[in-house]
Design brief:
globular; seven-stranded mixed β-sheet; 0% helix; four-stranded antiparallel β-sheet; mainly beta
């Protein structure tokens, strides 16, 4: 079965950290760019971070620049999102997707993992 599965979400206090993981099964993730997107209640899904196939190109949306870092370990078929200095406005369901380009056209999506930043 071809799928992506996210993990690592949870409840964290403002200023805290979480590391999300996105694991692919049934296909090789190194054939794809991978992006993290998020959707908060009542809002549209927005792109957060994107990493190229080889990991040499990384992009982050301005609101997370300097706080979030995307990385990948192709040997483990996994992409990570390290999130530091979390803010309440980072609260959302986080999804990873496998893309044929730099995070515009997705072939696969994971079911998402909830991140809640609250005191």
């Amino acid at each position: 079965q071809l799928q992506l599965v996210e993990s690592g979400g949870g409840l964290v206090q403002p200023g805290g950290s979480l590391r999300l993981s996105c694991v692919a099964s049934g296909f090789s993730l190194d054939n794809y760019a991978v992006g993290w997107f998020r959707q908060a209640p009542g809002k549209e899904r927005e792109g957060v971070s994107c990493i190229s196939r080889g990991g040499g190109t990384r992009r982050h949306v301005d609101s997370v620049q300097g706080r979030f870092t995307i990385s990948r370990d192709n040997a483990k078929n996994t992409v990570y999102l390290q999130m530091n200095s979390l803010k309440p406005e980072d609260t959302a369901v986080y999804y990873c997707g496998a893309f044929v380009d730099m995070c515009r056209i997705a072939e696969y999506w994971g079911p998402g993992t909830q991140v809640t930043v609250s005191s």
